[in-house]
Amino acid sequence: MSIGPVTFPEELVALLRKAPKLAVLTGAGVSQESGLRTFREAQTGLWAQHRPEDLASPEAFQRDPKLVWDWYAWRREALKGVRPNPGHYALVETAKHVARFTIITQNVDGLHQMAGNENVLELHGSIRRVRCADCRTLANTWDDDAESVPGCLECGGLLRPDVVWFGEALPRDQLEAAVEAARSCDIFFSIGTSGVVQPAASLAFAAHNRGALVVEINAEPTPLTSKADYVFHGKSGEILPHLVEAIWG
Ligand code: APR
User: Fold this and answer.
1) What's the CA gap between 12 and 233, in Å, rounded?
2) Which residues contact 158 (CB under 8 A, 6 or more apart)?
3) For ligand 1, is residue 197 a contact (CB within 6 Å)?
4) How much is the pTM?
């Protein structure tokens, strides 16, 4: 299914041409067209087939570290060969035309960086990194197919993915920078996220309350839709290239 020609309101186009300060929050939807599954899509979403509390929580890791390790190893395997899509590249292009551009991503896939974006805040960590569950030392290498969960070379603790699990705090430096970017931007984009997971879901409202224009690009309505100034419902990999073309083409 491809969308027809999208028209972008003149006011939005004019504002974006003024090279404002942009903050862009992204979620799993922005990587869907790269072949990665989202979390909450009915049937196909990861949480439709797995219980997050069984796989993405410190309690789950405590209970069965190998089950959790294997699930992330499976997700890393699924990431091999996955490439950014036109939506990712449109954000790289956008960054070239504005005063300040900050990507605040909930994604752990590293596709924004792979596409070429530099200023990427990883609120939920990265599945491409592994660290010690005890001393937090990052591992340079590890064996995803090991018989048991590999150990930390520093302290012998168990290795785990460097992602934020349910019930865990977000990396303070990333969150503080994200809040700052949201509060000081002129335009805030929310792209490909269901907007139900905190604190990421509150950033658009923080921007709105500071007078920023809020733009939502998502395949379906979210709790943010009624608050957003502009809403484009469809695929970000189709809408974003059209937007870039309309403004800077
Ligand atoms: N383009 C735009 N939006 C899309 C596309 C697409 N091609 N495909 C799906 N979407 C939308 C869906 O309609 C949905 O609203 O993307 C959203 C994805 O929502 P979730 O699956 O809930 O993912 P996300 O919002 O990133 O989840 C937040 O929850 O499970 C935790 O830590 C995990 O970072 C994740 C967080």
Assistant:
1) 16
2) 61, 65, 132, 133, 134, 149, 150, 151, 152
3) yes
4) 0.95
Distance of CA 171 from the midpoint of ligand 1 (Å): 21
Q: Which atom of ligand 1 is nearest to the CA of 28?
A: 26
CB 124 within 8 A of CB 167: no
Ligand 1 center from residue 234 Cα (angstroms)? 13
Q: Ligand 1 centroid to 236 CA: how many Å?
A: 11
Instruction: Report the pLDDT averaged over residues 18-22.
Output: 88
Please tell me which residue in 88, 112, 124, 242 is annotated as part of the active site: 124
| pLDDT digits 0-9 by tens, 179-225 | 999 999 999 999 999 999 999 999 999 999 999 999 999 999 999 99
Radius of gyration of the chain (CA): 19
pLDDT of residue 48: 73
Is 124 noted as a catalytic residue in this protein? yes
Distance CA 88, CA 190 (A): 14
